[in-house]
Amino acid sequence: MSRLCAHCGKPFEPANKNHRYCRRKCYRAAYDAANRARIAKRRAAYFVAHRKEITTYCAANRDRIAKRKAAWYAANRERIAAQQAAYRAANRPRIAKRRAAGYAANRETVLKRLAAYRAANRKRLTRYWAAYYVANRARIVKRRAARRAAHRKRRKNSTARKGGRK
Ligand SMILES: [Zn+2]
After folding, report:
1. Nearest 5°: CA angle at 17, between 15 and 18?
2. Whole-number CA gyration radius for the chain
3. Rounded distance from Cα 34 to ligand 1 centre (Å)
């Protein structure tokens, strides 16, 4: 007698009456979903307990790990981008709030890091801004002219109020 998998819903032949999932993968996925918090806690504890071995391993295999990670990202680029976009779209207010809170809590660190980044990438940033200026010249010039006009108007008004200077 066949039965429907409790995870994917496909029919399968159970080997015994406690058999609820069609394959190991489904069992694993259902288990992970049901125990997410417990698994995360266990993983964090494992990391704390093995911090030294893990960091040593990572340091020794840095190149290999980086290569593997880069290959994974390259292979899954579209999937990751789609996932991130969906997440951002679904959580926009939450993300903005979290970002503002993070910035407020770490204002000095953020500013310091930003300054360090700017100092370290001065040349690259200069090139970037130059390219940006070229690409957006018309818009920038217009904005600057508007600002200057507003400034002139303000100055003229304040001089008029003082009765003019000679
Ligand atoms: Zn299944």
Report:
1. 95
2. 29
3. 15
Residue 1 CA to ligand 1 center (angstroms) comes to: 16
pLDDT digit string (tens) for 62-92?
999 999 999 999 999 999 999 999 999 999 9
Q: What are the distances in angstroms from CA 45 to CA 39, 41, 49, 102?
A: 10, 6, 6, 25
pLDDT at 162: 58
Confidence band for 20, pLDDT divided at 50, 70 and 90? very high
Q: Give φ, ψ of 12 to 5 degrees.
A: -150, 170
The pTM of the full predicted model, rounded to 2 decimals, is 0.37
C-alpha–C-alpha distance, residues 133 and 127, integer Å? 10
Distance 107 CA to ligand 1 centre (A): 48
Residue 161's pLDDT is 62
Alpha-carbon distance of 3 to 110, in angstroms, equals 56
- Kindly give the distance from the C-alpha atom of residue 12 to the centroid of ligand 1, in angstroms, as a whole number: 8
- 29 CA from centroid of ligand 1 (Å): 9
Instruction: Kindly state the average pLDDT of the residues 158-166.
Output: 60
Q: Bridge partners of 12?
A: 3
Report which residue type is found at 75: A
